[in-house]
Write a structure and sequence with these properties.
The structure holds 2 protein chains of 2 kinds. Chain A is mainly alpha-helical. Classes of the chains: A mainly alpha, B mainly alpha. At the A-B interface, helix 4, helix 5 and helix 6 of A face helix 3 and helix 4 of B.
Chain lengths: ~160, ~140
């Protein structure tokens, strides 16, 4: 028999001691979307953390508009917003996948955030970004290291 | 990045530290009081970083590049404000140099470079009186 019908092919492979996965390499089109790459997952996590940081700053500023404290916080907030823009610009998500985990929605009556909490968040963010450097490609590692350095200066600017 | 890339990145950081050591010597001469004390503290930190980098380069069987006898300053330093601007400029240069180490394949060197960036960025912010969104990097195109 020179030609086998599609229906007979699995039987022929089985007779030859082969499983279909041995013959057809590559992703199984019936297995659903492939898992997201490590870089995408890293970026999604860092973006979510940056969004949470921005929410913290917005709550810390609250209705305070004219004080020196508010001006300082707004300046740091603007830099976090720049971080977010650059991080999102590097995120390429496969079609159909969620762009990033949604940050926890702040409650309209969420408590205000203290400077101490902001400082701790900045320090934690810098440390987390440095931890991620080991497994990221060079260009992304440089961006994360730069953002970590920025966060470290923020912690100092907040009195730490 | 291969071993040659690692050594090149270490040498670049060493060069930036040597330039900073020279520059702080100039800046410190125009400062007084707490600013001069801060310059001396930062000068000492750069000397320590230079020694650490030289040891890391030597450990790889390479001779650390020697400091130059003189460095061309980016602008004329003749008073305290220009000395403070120079200090911030020097720290920016050091931050940029360590950014190169963050791109090497050695994970410990990446961390070392990132932590050195944080130190330099803090010093730069202290001299400048303000923080930056992306220390060590060119301003991203918006």
């Amino acid at each position: 028999m020179l030609l086998a019908s599609a229906a007979a092919l699995p039987l022929l492979l089985g007779a030859a001691g082969c499983r279909s996965s041995d013959v057809f390499t590559g992703p199984d089109p019936l297995a659903g979307r492939p898992p997201l790459g490590h870089d995408v997952l890293t970026l999604q996590a860092v973006i979510a953390a940056e969004e949470n940081m921005i929410d913290l700053y917005q709550r810390a500023i609250g209705g305070d508009s004219g004080t020196t404290r508010a001006r300082t916080l707004r300046s740091l907030l603007a830099q976090h917003q720049q971080h977010l823009v650059q991080l999102r610009a590097r995120l390429i998500v496969p079609p159909g996948a969620s762009p990033s985990p949604s940050p926890a929605s702040p409650s309209p009556r969420a408590s205000t955030v203290s400077i101490t909490r902001l400082r701790a968040a900045e320090r934690a963010s810098a440390a987390d970004l440095v931890r991620r450097l080991a497994t990221t490609p060079p260009a992304l590692a440089q961006l994360l290291a730069s953002i970590a350095a920025s966060d470290a200066t923020h912690a100092t600017a907040l009195g730490g | 990045m291969a071993s040659t890339g690692i050594v090149a990145a270490l040498q670049a950081a060493l060069a930036a530290e040597n330039a900073a050591i020279f520059g702080y010597g100039v800046a410190g001469a125009h400062l007084a009081g707490s600013s001069q004390a801060a310059a001396e503290r930062d000068w000492t930190a750069h000397n320590q970083a230079r020694d650490a980098l030289a040891a890391m380069i030597s450990a790889r069987g390479v001779v650390p590049t020697a400091a130059q006898a003189y460095y061309q300053l980016p602008f004329r330093v003749r008073d305290a404000p220009s000395a403070i601007r120079l200090a911030a400029y020097l720290e920016d240069g050091v931050t940029r140099a360590y950014l190169g180490l963050v791109a090497v394949s050695d994970q410990r060197l990446r961390r070392f470079g990132a932590m050195a960036m944080q130190d330099a960025a803090r010093r730069a912010a202290s001299w400048r009186g303000s923080t930056q969104a992306f220390p060590g990097m060119s301003p991203p195109a918006s």
